Fold each of these.
Amino acid sequence: MTKRIVAAFDFDGTITTRDTLLPFLKQYGLWKLTKGTCKTLAGIQRGNLRNALKENTLKALFADFPIERLEEEGRIYAETLPRLYRKETLGRIKSHKERGDQLILVTGSLGCYARPAAAALGFDHTFAVELASTLGHMTGDIQGANVRGPEKARLLKNHLKGEPVELWAYGNSSGDEEMLKMADHAEMV
């Protein structure tokens, strides 16, 4: 029996040459970004500083923001991202795609732009930070956990459902370590 081959990629710094989240968030106001940072540093939110900073910033920016508007602005932003793509990583994506491997994006980036970017690259599935909503507006809360570190590995394991696969994983930071450790072939970009 031949194992299915799965290739899991991080986005920021792995497919792209730099972070994509902060430039996307800046368009919604530096004051709101600063407010989220100050709330975190004031100690209102306990726990992992990186996760708390992201949660507080997203809440400050997107509480009561229309879902359709965020999705449209995310799609437009995704169209600007190819100029940031690493040629060598694009080559790996192309190679996996040509072999018929399943491509999965596992990223801490926002789903509103990660999903369309992944679709344009030919990915089969995307795990990204999704925001909760009610009645057509964002609450500003993250659905589930920030997609970083152990959460990347958990999402990928759940998706694979214990099925035997040959797993390739590509990442560039400590936030990708757990995903890379579970791979048969791991590459730090």
Note: The two ends are 31 Å apart (CA to CA).
Amino acid sequence: MGATELILIAIGLAMDAFAVSVGKGLTVDKVTPRHAISAGVWFGGFQALMPIVGYMLGHSFQHVVSSIDHWIAFALLLLIGLNMIRETLWADDKESHDSDFGPRKMFVMAVATSIDALTIGITLAFLNVNIWLAAAVIGLITFALSAMGVILGSRFGAKFGSKAGILGGVVLIALGVKILLEHLGVIA
């Protein structure tokens, strides 16, 4: 997996956190740097941690499924992408419009938005990706997009939230198709 694919996966994973951050930004009368940094640290931290956990799980049973790992990677990315799109189109936005930036609330949202990253970690184990580099890229991109989401939410409204979730889902599905086609020898 090249740098471009890794960055696209990171952006795709960050879209849930970005959408929630936009929603958080909508709820605050005056956004401060503390709000943006809080969202970035919580969401970026969990998006970096979860692929490592998933990688360890995936690596432990990789030898059993190595002949079909590309199909598993495709299926996981497809399911994650479709679920992201489904949640975006049919989700109840009331959850994301809560102005509480306290640890308890942010922890729950960070875990909820990073479950997909756990699954990606399993996929990265099958692809023998450097998990430390991948986790750092995923975490940093999520940090930046989440912090920016809070600021954009306070300035521009809810328009970005739904589009971000759909875009993230499409990116993950496209990467799953690319991985499958590469392993089947259809594309180089």
Note: The longest helix spans residues 33-60.
Amino acid sequence: MKKNLLTILILATNIVTLAMVGIMMFSVMGTVNQTSALISDITAAIELEQAGGLGGGVDPNAVNTNVAIADQDIYHVSEGGTLTVTLAVNPTANGGDGRQHYAQVTVDLLMDKTNEAYAQYQPMIAGVDSSIVNIVHNVIGVYTIDNIMDSREAIRQEILKQLWGMFDNTTFIYNVNILITPA
């Protein structure tokens, strides 16, 4: 009789434990799902930041740069004029001359007429010319006379990334031609 009573007591304890585990599982599942969604959102934000930052996730490798000549449109920033950009001073402590230097810069934007965003944004380009000039000044202005010529590709890519961000992460501007002459 004692064995049966002990078996029934163990069985009852197991059933109560199983019921408690079931209740805990259902109450914790909502929190687990919310936490999982939060982690997914954070992961997506980190991936966007790693993929472009201001460019908002535009993958430079996914941009079509093989655009036929008939499908190209070129916008000459500042009406094709030369921009004078103030460069950062290279201190004499770093082997520089400590003087202010400038760069003469000409910028052309290459646009893809077949891109779906072209029709929407191309008419706006002339209206935001001063903003584009500002981007050029901000990007190039951090370089010194000593390192600007070695950084042309990085400058081109940074200007392109900021332009993509300016135009809602569209890639109708697929390339930037930039001519830099330090002075």
Note: Helices lie at 2-51, 118-121, 129-140, 152-166.
